[in-house]
Each structure stands twice: as C-alpha cells, then as structure tokens.
Amino acid sequence: MKLLALDTATEHMALALWDGSAVAEPGTHRLADGGAQSSAHLIPMLLAMLAERGLRLSDLDAIAVGQGPGAFTGLRTAISVAQGLAFGANKPVLLLDSLLLVAEAAHLEAPVASGSTVWVAMDARMDEIYAAAYAHDGHTWQTLAAPALMDAPSLNAAWQALPPACVAGSAAAAFGERLHTQGLLTVAGVTHRAQALLALACAAWQQGPKVAPEDAQPLYLRDKVAQTTAERLAQRLAKEQGAAP
C-alpha cells in the first residue's frame, strides 16, 4: 500500500506519504505554511516527497485529501490538486474529514481516555465556527456530531448537551471567553497534523470508500464565503456597540 495525502483546509498545509516505512522516517510527512502559499508550493512539495522515497505517481495506490470543512480557497486547491494527480495516475481518491484531522492531531499531542468526547472547534471567520464531535475507542474514531457551522452561543449549547473532555482547534483562542472552555483541556491540534494526516489516510484506505477523481468534491458548510465592505462595517459597529458600557 502506497498513499499520498494532503490537506490545506487551514492556515497550515499538511502533507504525508505512506510507503510502508516507519512514520518517523524523513519524507513521510511535512507541515508547512498554508493559505496563499498552498497553491504555489503544494505540487512541488508533493513531487519532492515522492522523489525522496524513490516513487512515482504511478506507484501509488490512492491519493487522500482533506475535503473540509475549511477555508474556501484551501479546499478548492487541495481537491483540484488531488483530482489532477489522481486523473494523471489513474488512481482513486480517499476523502478525509478535515475536522477529524484536527481531532487526531490533538489526540497525538494530548491523548484523552478511550470513549471521551473530543470537540473540534475551528475559527471559520465571519464570527462563526466549524465544529464537530468525535470519540476514539482505542482503534478508530466515531463521529458523535457531524461537522456543522455554528456561532459561539450555539456551540456552547451543544457542549451542554454533549460535554467535551477536550476542545481541539483554533476557535478557543480566537473566541476567548465567548466559548465556555474554562476547566477544559484545549489543544490547538497543529503540531502533529501531518502525522495525523498519515494515520487517517491509512485508516481510510482500510475502511473508507474510494471515489473516482471526478467524484471528489469539497465539503462546504457555508454558501456565502465572503462579506461585502458594508457587511464587515456593520458587523464591526455591532461589536463596538455591544462592548460599550
């Protein structure tokens, strides 16, 4: 089994290659700056990883990609690259949950007890949050709450119904006291993201469906991906008025 995996759903670009080698060996995973950097550096970095291991695209069994939710441009970049490489090599695509990737990275950094609820909360900009809940049984992840787009009050209410043992992702830092994370374990879920990508790609090969490149589509939770200048101004004024005594 040989897999190439990529995720550019956040400001960190994660790349991974599985060729049967130990996870810690050089060339098996990389974490780099994402965002605007993704489109320029993604393909050269992927091809360099293959070259370092003496592999060609035709040697792969599949290409795994984080399908979201996440940044609009990042998702389009990752899916387009995965489709192009898979078409060229005549290989299937494995679609990965980008929020589950954060949960796995957090679990590698600060493992929680088996069966404990891990909520992922990623800053989605526009005063919203990408959120989902998972539990690890010691072998695989189970989805307890599917990825959704929420505001802070809605997520706090969801935590009342399904209390987290850990909150992973960028929203805790971005929203501060507006999210009720006091007393909870909070983990950014960045440091081990590339290793987590490798683990999820291997699990997807064993368990998940393999789709044709043309069927690989990003997971969008927001129809509107940007605000107008007037909308941004109105939102800023509303925040300022709300903070005024």
Q: Could you explain the architecture of this structure?
A:
With 245 residues, the chain is an alpha/beta fold. It folds into two domains: 3-97 and 191-215, 2-Layer Sandwich (Nucleotidyltransferase, domain 5); 99-187, ATPase, nucleotide binding domain (Nucleotidyltransferase, domain 5). It is built from seven helices and ten strands. A five-stranded mixed sheet has the order 3-2-1-4-5, sandwiched between helices. Strands 8-7-6-9-10 form a five-stranded mixed sheet, with helices on both faces. Helix 3 crosses helix 6. The radius of gyration is 18 Å and the shape is globular. The protein starts with a strand and ends with a helix. The mean pLDDT is 89. It comes from Ideonella paludis. This is tRNA (Adenosine(37)-N6)-threonylcarbamoyltransferase complex dimerization subunit type 1 TsaB. Residues 38-150 form the Gcp-like domain.
CATH architecture of the largest domain: 2-Layer Sandwich
Q: C-alpha Rg, in Å?
A: 18 Å
Low-confidence stretches: none
The CATH class of the largest domain is identified as Alpha Beta
Residue fraction in strands? 15-25%
> What is the total number of structural domains?
2
Please give the share of residues in helix: 25-40%
* Helical run tally: 7
Q: What is the string of SSEs from the N terminus onward?
A: EEEHEHEHEEEHEHEHH
- Alpha-carbon distance between the two ends: 62 Å
Q: CATH homologous superfamily of the largest domain, by name?
A: ATPase, nucleotide binding domain
Describe the strand arrangement of the main beta sheet, using strand numbers.
3-2-1-4-5
- Strand runs, count: 10
CATH topology of the largest domain: Nucleotidyltransferase, domain 5
